[in-house]
Input
Amino acid sequence: MPPVPKHSSWISRWPILLTAGLVIVVGVVFLVEFVVATEGVEEDPVATDNLTEATYMDVVNLLLVGADEVRGEALVNEELACHACHISGAGEIAPGYRDLSDHALARAPLTLEAYIYESIVYPAAHIVAGYPNSMPQNYGQQLTERQLGDIIAYLLTQASS
Output
């Protein structure tokens, strides 16, 4: 049998080293994305002591112009996977959609539409009693106006069901 060159042991291990390197890179990327998505809001930009029905309605009314509840349903149930906490985990992780109207009453004088907007864009402004602050804090920066309007339109149909 011919002698094996010394560098061949490294060459034979390259698939293992490559795989380990990729696992580490994916793990680091996942960790960074997780931290960004679950970052707490350091300062609440909403003065919750001075809420009026009009506080968000100028914005919300514009978001709802041309909003499509079908697109909102796809965003909620497929793209953003909101159902994982609000349907599958409802009652444990996050409140269910059907209880939106009841929870909005606790935020009077906000309208249901304004409450949904606040819950998505400023989720730390009001945490429903009995639930952790598990809502991602950056949807206000990640979602487009069209996406926000579509999601609000969809959730309005769920609250009234």
The two ends are 78 Å apart (CA to CA). Residues 48-159 form a domain with the Cytochrome Bc1 Complex; Chain D, domain 2 fold (CATH 1.10.760.10). The helical segments are 8-37, 54-64, 69-79, 83-88, 100-105, 112-121, 139-142, 145-159.
